[in-house]
Amino acid sequence: SQQGEEDPQALSIQEGENATMNCSYKTSINNLQWYRQNSGRGLVHLILIRSNEREKHSGRLRVTLDTSKKSSSLLITASRAADTASYFCATSRTTDSWGKLQFGAGTQVVVTP
Amino acid sequence: ETGVTQTPRHLVMGMTNKKSLKCEQHLGHNAMYWYKQSAKKPLELMFVYNFKEQTENNSVPSRFSPECPNSSHLFLHLHTLQPEDSALYLCATRGDGTYNEQFFGPGTRLTVL
Questions:
Q1: Taking CB atoms and an 8 Å limit, are A44 and B4 in contact across chains?
Q2: What does the pLDDT look like over B3-38, one tens digit per residue?
Q3: Which positions in chain A touch B109 (Cβ < 8 Å)?
Q4: Count of helix runs (H) and strand runs (E) in chain A
Q5: Which of residues 21-50 of A touch B (CB under 8 A)?
Q6: Residue B31 class from Cβ within 10 Å (0-12 exposed, 13-18 middle, 19+ buried)?
Q7: Chain A residues with beta carbon closer than 8 angstroms to that of B8
Q8: pLDDT tens figures, B32-49
Q9: If we measure between CA atoms, which residue out of A12, A9, A65 comes closest to residue A34?
């Protein structure tokens, strides 16, 4: 089974609202990363949080990490139509070599004007 | 732009054809990856190259053959593919530091008829 699982699978919100999505994983990690993918395009790295960090901010993004619960959340504040995309969490496991990442299936976010 | 380009962006091929996907990076990174992204599934890691050497083959069928002639280029040679191989193929690179983020190209949308 996959290492990262996002929840919910899909999210539809209005512009200006906040969007929250969660990621759960199974094994010990070095870090957890969030990526965004616009339809049919490549992934774009958003933010990386290390296993010894609990919260991180980048612009309108806020990421939390709870290693005891093996979960992370991504919050997008004051969402915009341009935030419409799929969001993926990816974990770098302590057992992985060569910088491998384990991706979840993603949360599809639609922000309507 | 992430500094990683992929060509072609779209490819339609028959099951008996031979084609190649190309990835080029201008970031000076030494780790390069091929991923397969199918609808509603997590990204599947296919191959990992470090310093032009293949360090991982994630049980990929032999009809997919990677090549890394230099640190800036990565190819995926395709032959006798199956319709279920239709997917978005993504190339990614990683800078020095095993636990850094990955930089993705825009992908090649492959359709096998």
A1: no
A2: 999 999 999 999 888 999 999 999 999 899 999 999
A3: 40
A4: 0, 11
A5: 30-31, 33, 35, 40-45, 48, 50
A6: buried
A7: none
A8: 999 999 987 889 999 999
A9: A65
Parallel/antiparallel/unpaired status of strands A29-37 and A85-93: antiparallel
Interface of A with B in 53-92 (CB under 8 A): 88, 92
- On whether the CB atoms of residues B16 and B82 are closer than 8 A, the answer is no
* Spatial distance between the Cα atoms of B107 and A104, rounded to a whole number of angstroms: 18
Helix (H, G, I), strand (E, B) or coil at A113: coil
pLDDT at B88: 96
Give how far A63 is from chain B: nearest CA, Å: 15
What are A9-22's pLDDT values in tens digits?
999 999 999 999 99
Q: Among all chains, which residue has been given the structure tokens 């910088």?
A: A99
Q: Which residues of A touch B45 (CB under 8 A)?
A: 100-101
pLDDT tens, residue by residue, A90-113? 998 877 777 889 998 899 999 999
Q: Do B43 and A99 touch (CB under 8 A)?
A: no
Residues forming beta bridges with residue B3, ordered by sequence position: none
The amino acid that residue A27 corresponds to is T
Q: What is the pLDDT of residue A1?
A: 42
**Cα dihedral sign for A111, A48, A25, B108?**
positive
Among the partner-chain residues A2, A42, A48, the one whose CB lies closest to the CB of B90 is: A42
Token pair in block for residue A20: 């929250």
Q: Tell me whether residues A99 and B2 touch, CB distance under 8 A.
A: no
